[in-house]
Amino acid sequence: MVRAVNPTESAPTRYAWEVQASGLRVRAGKRMAVDGLDLRLGTGVHGLLGPNGAGKTTLIRALATVLHPAGGNLELLGVPVNGRPDLRALRRRLGYLPQEFGYYPKFTVREFVEYMAWLKEVDKQDIPGAVQRAIERVGLADRAEDRMKTLSGGMLRRAGIAQAVVNDPDLLLLDEPTVGLDPAQRLEFRALLRALGERSCVLVSTHLVEDVAAACSRVVLMASGRSVFQGTPDEVVAAGGTDDVGDSPMERGYSALLAAEVTR
Amino acid sequence: MTDNTGAHASRAAIAAYATGDPALPAAAEWAVEAHLETCADCRTHLADAVRIGDPTLDSALRRVWTELDARAPRTPAPGRPAWSRWARTWAPPTLAPRLTTGVLVALVAFLVDLIAPEHTPTPLVLLVAPVAPLFGVAAAWSRRLDPLHELTASTPRAGLAVVLRRTAVVLAAVIPVLAVAGAFTGLNPALWLLPCLAFTTGALALGTVFGVDRAALGLGLLWTALVIAPTLMNLGAPQPLRQAGLPGWAIAAAVAAVVLTARARSFTALSDKN
């Protein structure tokens, strides 16, 4: 299905980075989960790595504008998020898949994505086409009329990704999207990520180092609320030595970078 | 792409290509196909060959259509009717059970009033009118009661408008029951309507600070402990539900509405309290 390109899409962008944060602080409950983070993300697929409790989910929630920063500067798609921004216009250009993503069990996949498209203020006449395209992109076209409660974990994740991309976002935030996907689905998912990263900024948080190696053009490594490394997957591999913990060059690089942070 | 200078494919070759004639060597078939891609004239000849028809070609086409038919879905997707999609934009399905509870509470109060009107000094409908909508209101914006809450909160539509839409659904279900019950007991409609509206706006306004479900629960418990229970234990008719209390309710509702509007931004964010 061919999608019409509207004038705003072909207009030149007026910002250098899709995400620009400096000294960003975000609270999760009473804890300052993101504390003094500097980040610059452009177009492409960015992998967000880090141990549990590093603040990945809190960072992604702040980028999804559902948590307000407690300090520092944050600019998304050229819009400063501090103060009282026009969230509506900004959010129309965001896609977000939370880590624990709920659903209404009686909705079919199509109804779920349709409902999300309505919430995302996709033009009414564009909704059926956009929904079909999103469902086809994640490979759920044959299950589109099935109820959400009948889907397996991997299919639910894919339905979640479908709702995230239904508005063709410029900034796509995926929190642990590969959980529950089997190896074949992970391969397909990486291909989907690469395709999405061609025109938008995609940030994927994951525990799986090999997903990052395969699908991401840049890597952001977080530890205790700050970004400790930003670079290419090759640079991560180069950081690892033979005596570092890990089964693959990428894993060894990951543990070397984290260990360097701990000793600093 | 039509500036084809090479030799054209013969009519015979095109006809053989169209019917998939095995007599046409594979190499020649590829050559014809490549040529057809760039030559509009020969594509016209191909179209003629298909249009004139040929038993072999017809049967091949029929086979393709049969296979396509077998693969195509029998009927179009059985999507729900348009009104159902429209209704969904007013209230998510998780609102329904809570809403029903509120309506049932009002109905039970009505029944008790019908059967044993002298049992309580104040009609029961009057007592439950403030809390009946709170069951539904609690689910209007709640992380615990709405599985889609985090997703909803991240969308451009999130905000006071969505919360008010859902609240309107709750009131539209509860108020008619209260109205019928109130008419039977011959009450001044303002006596039950104002407390009902004041508690609803109050729960939403407090909800911007404490979370809507907690605020609704708190208000409901307070009302039960301070008014419903003493009345049922025959400790006298409650002060706030008399004619003289009406201005107080109106002021409370207005104050709550102002607070709600001023703090509406809390409905665009995720909070631990929701």
From TrEMBL, chain A:
Superkingdom of source: Bacteria
A Pfam match: ABC_tran
Statement: the UniProt record of this protein carries the keyword Ribosomal protein: no
One MF annotation (Gene Ontology) recorded for this entry: ATP binding
PROSITE patterns recorded: ABC_TRANSPORTER_1, ABC_TRANSPORTER_2
Residue intervals of the ABC transporter domain: 19-249
Keyword annotations: ATP-binding, Nucleotide-binding, Transport
Keyword Nucleotide-binding applies: yes
Family: Belongs to the ABC transporter superfamily.
Name assigned to this protein: ABC transporter ATP-binding protein
From TrEMBL, chain B:
Keyword Transmembrane attributed: yes
InterPro entries: Anti_sigma_zinc_sf, Znf_put
Keyword annotations of the record: Membrane, Transcription, Transcription regulation, Transmembrane, Transmembrane helix
KW Transmembrane (keyword) present: yes
Domain of life of the source: Bacteria
All residue ranges annotated as the Putative zinc-finger domain in the record: 11-43
Membrane spanning stretches: 95-116, 122-142, 163-184, 190-212, 219-238, 244-264
Name of the protein this chain belongs to: Putative integral membrane protein
Native organism: Actinokineospora spheciospongiae
